[in-house]
Design brief:
Elements lengths: L12 H8 L5 H35 L2 E2 L9 E2 L3 H7 L2 H34 L2 H16 L2 H12 L6 H4 L16 H29 L3 H9 L4 H12 L1 H16 L3 H6 L9 H11 L3 H26 L3 H4 L4
Length: 322
Amino acid sequence: MTTTSTTTAPPSRPDRAKAGKPRKSDRARAEARLGWLLAGPAFVVMLAVTAYPILQAVYESLFRNRLTAPGDRAFIGLGNYGVILTDSLFWKSLAVTTGIMVITVVIEVVLGFALALVMHRAVKRLRGLLRTAILVPYGIITVVSAFAWFYAFSIDSGYVNSWFSWLPGIDQDLNWFAHMGTSLFVIIASEVWKTTPFISLLLLAGLAQVPGDLEEAAQVDGATSWQRMKRVVLPNMKAAIMVAVLFRALDAFRIFDNVFIMTNGANNTEVLSLLAYRTSIGRLEIGLGSAISVLLFVCVIIICFIAIKVFKVDLAGARGER
């Protein structure tokens, strides 16, 4: 008795690659196409508006160009970058800028998430009122907000010292803008007060995307509030948290108004944007100022790269499409 065995040939390598590679659904492709159609015109306009200043700054950074000595203009390549990167003032400004960015983003994400939870779980009749009240600080112009905080903490016209003199370390003669620590405290507090509503709205949108049935299932299984928050809510909000952190980090890294109005860089509070302004406008060093602006832009790109790598958000998977 003879037996015959049939063997199935293994799929070819192209078939294997095709089988292992996830394919986008028709809905995902349609959404991507619609997204490009809607965002394409705005992207082209923004690129046209921002590309020229960026390229002009890169071009000017390669020249020794001082407006007080127009005849001394000369091409020096990366010489301006060498001067800046070997100057301790640049690294101090970078450290102050990074510190302000990290502290403000951390505080704002925590407070913004708390406000988002309050708005998300509030009674429907009160949601509109809460959102309007929370948005009031964000609607104030940054310069106006900075002046308000400056006068509130001023030793001459401020009311903070008299109101909070009962706290240890605060008295009528405390000059908040005479020391680095207290100056940065006021600057960071003003930033947190104004931009936390922006973070709360972004996180509120993320909370709205968390499936309610998953929370109910976790509650039925006996999960505590913290476990539901850690295992259900936060993982489903990862994309919203990344967007909030990224947008706010980029905005905080370019801080200028508050520092310029409150301290003008005194007491070691100078940030990169203010350093670029003082170099270009104050000293009329267009080449050095342009180089600082380019380095600031490079730092922003690095922040974007780090944020995307840290969060590792799969936007296609977040909406259930491949």
